[in-house]
From TrEMBL:
The gene is ispD. Its EC number is 2.7.7.60. Pathway: Isoprenoid biosynthesis; isopentenyl diphosphate biosynthesis via DXP pathway; isopentenyl diphosphate from 1-deoxy-D-xylulose 5-phosphate: step 2/6. Keywords: Isoprene biosynthesis, Nucleotidyltransferase, Transferase. This is 2-C-methyl-D-erythritol 4-phosphate cytidylyltransferase.
Length: 246
């Protein structure tokens, strides 16, 4: 069985969030913090040997105290974030246990996953070396400058990358060794510049990232509808033996 570590970056400033006076990974989403809902999709999997949450230095002490019971029960490691997403993920990568073969990075701000989507992207990464979830761009894309449209960007072959983004551990480590001055907005961009193949696995627009307060409100609505709306044989993370046909 392929083995995985999961890194959940949660060390951003949530500057676009402005809701509940909390950073988005710590906002209460229908009774549980966003980061907890994201982590839960992984901490009960037999193939996940380590779960790591990356938290900013400013939040670390508060986080450890607030979620002490959850962290212990779920066996989640904490690592200090950096001043960029890439730096935060790199800090998580540095503590991945030596025996683990694959590393999955999943935004702590993407709580709306199903077991099926995780199964699919994990399996694809184990087959090809690297894979991520994504969806084809559905809207027309415009370039804008000073409030004016300057061009239409063809959406042909364009996909919106999501997470989990899953890589052979040695590929991701080699990619970071060659990072140079690149400040990637996702981990795939780092691995792309090493020339390794990365597979795109068709996911769902329901696996959206909570960035703004509107996203948060939408997530609260989608949470209950997810199994039905996903059009998938959805398994609750804790009820693998109880699949529900959609
Ligand atoms: N230095 C950083 C920056 C971002 N992230 C994490 O990367 C994920 C995706 O980033 P984004 O949605 O941009 O989060 P923020 O950077 O917090 O958002 P904003 O740009 O609105 O400040 C988030 O879970 C965020 O916590 C991180 O761990 N460390
Ligand atoms: C990784 C990601 O979710 C893929 O779309 C996205 O790039 C994260 O961006 P952020 O600025 O770190 O939220």
């Amino acid at each position: 069985m392929a083995t995985f570590a999961v890194i959940l970056p949660a060390a951003g400033q949530s500057s676009r969030f402005q809701h509940q006076q909390r950073k988005k990974p710590f906002a209460d989403l229908k009774g549980r913090a966003v980061w907890l809902r994201s982590a839960e999709h992984f901490t009960n999997r037999d193939d996940v040997l380590q779960t790591i949450v990356v938290v900013s230095p400013d939040d670390e002490e508060w986080f450890k105290e607030k979620y002490a019971a959850n962290l212990a029960f779920m066996n989640v490691d904490i690592v200090t974030g950096g001043d960029s997403r890439a730096a935060s993920v790199k800090n998580g990568l540095a503590i991945v246990k030596p025996e683990i073969e694959y590393v999955a990075v999943h935004d702590a701000a993407r709580p709306l996953l199903t077991k099926q989507w995780v199964d699919q992207v994990f399996a694809k990464a184990a087959e090809t070396g690297a894979a991520l979830l994504g969806v084809p761009v559905a809207s027309t894309l415009k370039k804008v400058a000073d409030g004016q449209i300057t061009a239409t960007v063809s959406r042909e072959s364009l996909w919106e990358a999501q997470t989990p983004q899953v890589f052979r551990r040695d590929w991701l480590e080699a990619a970071y060794a060659k990072q140079g001055k690149l400040e990637p907005t996702d981990e795939a961009q780092l691995v792309e510049q090493t020339g390794k193949p990365i597979s795109m696995v068709a996911g769902s627009s329901l696996n959206f990232k909570i960035t703004t307060a509107d996203d948060f409100r939408l997530a609260a609505l989608a949470l209950d509808a997810l199994p039905k709306a996903a059009g998938l044989r959805a398994l609750h993370p804790f009820q693998d033996e109880d699949p529900r046909l959609i």
